[in-house]
Amino acid sequence: MATENPRVNPPGRAPRVTHRANEALARVNIKEGPYFKALSDGSMTIDQFRSTQEQFFFAVTFFPRPMAALVGRIPDPRQRLDILHNLVEEHGGFREDCFHHTTFQEFLGRIGADPGRLKTLPVAPALRAFNSVLSTACIHDELEVGVACMGIIELAFASISAFIGKAVVERGFLAAGQLVHYKLHAEIDERHAEEFFAVLEPLWDDRGRRYYIEEGLELGAYIFDRLYRDLLLAVPPIAPPAIQHPV
User: Rounded to whole angstroms, how far apart are CA atoms 113 and 94?
Assistant: First the structure.
C-alpha cells in the first residue's frame, strides 16, 4: 500500500510539531481510504459524491465554532492572534460572500445540489460524531489537544482538497474553471495548520505538554480518516467498478 512520505525537515514556524503531524498523517494515510479510492477509480457516481458532500457541509459550517472556543481559552493574547487570524479567514475576512460556509454551498450548487435543502437535510451520525469530538477536544480537553487536533485536520485538508479538486475535474463532475472552495483550501490550509502549530511549538520541549500535543495530533488524524470512511455509509452503496473482459 502506498503511503505519503512525511517531510523530513519541514520549514516554517513550527518544524517539530509539523514533522510529527506529517508522521501521523503518513501512518493513517487518509487518501488511501475507501472514499478516495471510490472517487478516483470511477465507482463513485456524481449522485453519491453529491450526497457525501452535502453531509460534509455540516463539518465545514461547524468547524469555526470549536476554533472560536480555542481562541477564548488561550491566556496569552499574542498567541491568540494566529488562531484568530485563521478564524477570520474562515469567515471570509468579514465578507459574507467569502465565508467558507458560503463558498461550500456554492460548490454544492455547481455539482447539482440544492443548497436550500441543507436546512432540512438530516445530519448523518458520522457528522455529529465528528463535530462532537472536535467540540470536546477544544472545549473540555487540555488546550494542546484541541489545538493539535484542529491543526492536523487543516494540514490534512490541504492535500485532500487538491485530491478532490483534481478528481472532480477528471471525472467530469465540474470544469476546472468552476472549481470553488476546494481550490482555495488546497492553497491556504498548510498555512492555517502552521498557525495552529506555532502555538504548540514552544511547548514541545516540555514532555508533559508534548504528550498532549501528540495525543491531539493522533486524535485529529484518526477522526478525519474515520469521517471520510463513514461518509460512504451515509449514501446508497457504491457499486464495484465494471470488470473489463477481454474481447
Answer: 26
